[in-house]
Amino acid sequence: MLRRGVLVGALVLCVVAGGTPARSADPPEIPLTIENHRFTPEAITVPPGTSFVLVITNKDATPEEFESHDLRIEKVIPAGKTLRLRMPALKKGTYNFIGDFNQSTAKGRINAE
User: Does residue 6 lie within any of the structural domains?
Assistant: First the structure.
């Protein structure tokens, strides 16, 4: 019974003191732009084992599809819009992506190293 009272007291103290469980830092954001049917930058380097957010801005007058067979991702970014794409922690390696609507010019890669 005494142990239970100590646990309840500790919980109350934590709540009164404004304590909340520690939240991990937000994942880093990496900008990626589509303009003239090309990705800028064409190569992105990230540390392996760390998730991140790809912030893709389409400056073209037409939509583009961010597609990566390596990552199993397909997302359409409407013309003039920005899409935030949460990426998983990647193993060491290179992950290619394309703009599916303009495959001859819209190409890029993510290097986890």
Answer: no
- Domain CATH for 36: 2.60.40.420
**Strand arrangement, sheet containing 38-40:** 38-40, 29-35, 52-58, 82-87
This prediction's pTM: 0.76
Give mean pLDDT, residues 84-107.
Answer: 97
